[in-house]
Amino acid sequence: MDTKNFKVNNEKSTIDWIGRKITGAHNGTIGVKEGNFRFEDGKPVYGKLVIDTRTIKILDIEDAETNAQFAGHLSSDDFFNSDQFPEAFFEITHAEPGDHNLYYVTGDLTIKGITHPVNTSLQVSTTDNTAALDAKVVVDRTKFNIKFRSANFFTNLGDTLIYNNFDLNIHLVAEAY
């Protein structure tokens, strides 16, 4: 059995997020702190990604003051509580091969110290020394005690409602070690 270990290069890796509300959407980035993956016979069998919740950025708001206020709010207890929970985690627990380097992945996502299973697909391309992994993870924020302006918990929100699901578009570049 051929086993290879890869370490995520956080400088070359990106996570883009999109959050939607009744009147539109916001988007931005959040930083990759570290991660590693293990492949056996060219297939992912284990992986763990650490996300730095203190690095959340908003890309669609140009006014510096408004942007800073929004970033502060996303870091607050209404959302990610980054002071108390500076890291979020995604750990692959199982991967089933599909066609054309696609894998159907089950993993544990931990946000604000709360862990729930998530399913996604993972596109993998590898060379001898590098691996690129791409996934879109749809997260129901209410499962992680992020309830702000959710219709599940509040009524009469009108056009201030924020949808429960947000997307993480993950692109990881990892190097063999």
Automatic annotation (TrEMBL):
Q: Does the keyword 4Fe-4S apply?
A: no
Instruction: Tell me the InterPro entries matching this sequence.
Output: Lipid/polyisoprenoid-bd_YceI (IPR007372), TTHA0802/YceI-like_sf (IPR036761)
Keyword vocabulary terms for this entry: Plasmid
Give the Lipid/polyisoprenoid-binding YceI-like domain ranges: 5-175
Q: Name one Pfam family in it.
A: YceI
Q: Which SUPFAM superfamilies match?
A: YceI-like (SSF101874)
Q: What start-end ranges are recorded for coiled-coil regions in this protein?
A: none
Give the PANTHER family listed for this entry: PROTEIN YCEI (PTHR34406:SF1)
Which protein, by its recorded name, is this?
YceI family protein
Lineage runs: Bacteria, Pseudomonadati, Bacteroidota, Flavobacteriia, Flavobacteriales
